[in-house]
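Put briefly, the fold is written as integer tokens. The lines below illustrate.
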Amino acid sequence: MWVIDGALNFAPYFGLPLGLLIVPVVIFRRWKLVALAAVPFMLWAVVMLSVNLLLVRGRSCSETAGLRVVTANVLVGNLQLSALADAVLAQSPDIVVFEELTLEFEDFSPVLAKAYPYRISTETPWVTLASRLPLEDMRRVPLDPPIPGREPLAARVRVGDQTVTVLGTHEIPSLSTITYREHGKQYDLLEWEILQATGPVMVIGDINATIYSPQFLNFLRRSGVRPVSAASQQPTHTPTLNLSIRIDHVLIRGLAACDEQVFDLPGSDHDGLVVGVRLK
């Protein structure tokens, strides 16, 4: 199952080879086979359209109180963390979730540390949820059995007259039967936190899945959160064969999206994602 799920992360790239199946039968005028050859392409197009209907598009943020949030996978061992911190600061986010970060902010950017005094990290340093605004009820959501650095982070922040639940996560890549199950356990924890939350919710982080992953789609269906993205789905990572995909996400419930943009993270193999959200 993990092989199929992983392959479907690249589903947008299936269109060209499926479309090419139609060319030979047209060239050789095998008209009865044209319809048969076109079926896989048409099914692909329907799936692409259906999945993209889940995306939350941006609107104006001027009407009500809002937040700017960033997810940034820094790449463990990155030697350009100071420059990366400057790139994040240039986006002026209110909340940031860093993935693969094993250092304290003070170790590479005192400016970042001062700008984001409210923060919590996984027990084994790997994910950090940081905020300019005061965070309430900061906690780690334990995995059973524990997986170092992979427990989701939870907090609440006041925005206008409402409290927004914020969840930070870095999902385990589904590269085997075991990691596929572990990936699913992280979804289960996030789903529980989302369904227990009253009011608006944001999930921020490196999900290690695109919106075409059946496992991710099932999580979206069960939890009720939706990805913020333009129809173009700007990629944030290029894992193999120069096939770029969006695996870093901001998921929302009970909030409206204002805008979203991908930006460069010096020294990382990911791009950062900044999203504006507002209260409905």
About this structure: Helices lie at 2-8, 15-20, 22-27, 31-52, 81-89, 110-115, 177-196, 214-223. Residues 2-52 form one domain.
